[in-house]
Amino acid sequence: MHELSETTIRKSFVNCSKGEAKRLNLPTLREVKWEDQIFLSWLDHKSPLKGCLVVEHEGEVQAVLLQKAKAQSKAAQMCQFCMTLHPGSGISMYTAARPGESGRRGNTIGTYLCANLACTDYVLGKKKPVGIRQMEETLTLEEKIERTKSNALGFIARLKGES
């Protein structure tokens, strides 16, 4: 992923107002290892039920504001972006308001994701879920990276009604 500025990130949100995007708490961008990112994702340190996803594809940057569900499953589940298995506490349902009038009326879509939004770290092997064995895969690391990015882009496309 290329290095992104705060301005670029804030302007790229597809499902919140400019004012809401301006008020979001971003991570410290100078500390991000951009070359190691499949996409940028984080939980808001001041509002831990808010998360953000920023995906860059073919020069276009798209960002989504996510809302984390309070309740968590007890059963093991799989992240729908990175396909990492987690114990129930490691997965959360995230919803995103649809863009425009539809979202203002309360329409959302949701998916199960790594509770800490650290998909990149799981795919690259920097983190491993505690207490659960992962499935054996025959994909190369590059294929896993592409699958993860494709899944995130697919979520954004569904959110925008493009698929």
UniProtKB/TrEMBL annotation:
Pfam families: FBP_C. Residues 9-158 form the Elongation factor G-binding protein C-terminal treble-clef zinc-finger domain. InterPro entries: EF-G-binding_C. This is FBP domain-containing protein. It comes from Rothia terrae. The lineage of its organism: Bacteria, Bacillati, Actinomycetota, Actinomycetes, Micrococcales.
